[in-house]
Amino acid sequence: MGNDNCNQRMEKTIIALQENYNGIRTGRASAAIFDKVRVDYYGTKSPLNQVATISIPEARMVVIQPFDKSLINEIEKAIEVADLGFNPSNDGKVIRISIPPLTADRRKELVKQAKGIAENSRTSIRNIRRDGNDELKKQQKAGEITEDALKTSETELQKTTDKYIAEINKIYDEKEKEIMEG
Length: 182
Hints:
- 57% of the residues lie in helices and 15% in strands.
- It is α+β, with helices and mostly antiparallel strands.
- Strand 5 and strand 6 form a beta hairpin.
- It is elongated and about 70 Å long.
């Protein structure tokens, strides 16, 4: 019982890590950079991808086409407010954003940010393992599981923990490479 719950919680930690990493921009254009951008759409803060099409015609170019052309200025404002470091320009129909290459200092800063997010994720995984082990010990004390079952379950939980920590490290390494090559 406890291990499935831990597994689900660890899986959610990985998903959160990937979502956080989507928000860290690299030198490459990507629609995911705009995931946190919210546009004021008739009084409602809507995700950018629900009010416009985001396309990547080139490695360093993003084109945003509003479904409703009257939103073009709101979208531009939302991108500026999101503080992504872009200078959007529009021709009345679409917004074009040229992705500037990252400076060496900015790359270092982003790698440091990515490393911190990865460390927080590893800490979350270890906390989930601790909760799982505590739960197993309670079950053993209450006579719900045997000493052997406790040991087996703890070993399984450790293997699961190691698997998720390795996955975090792999995701971090990929993000670091992406930032540095940008």
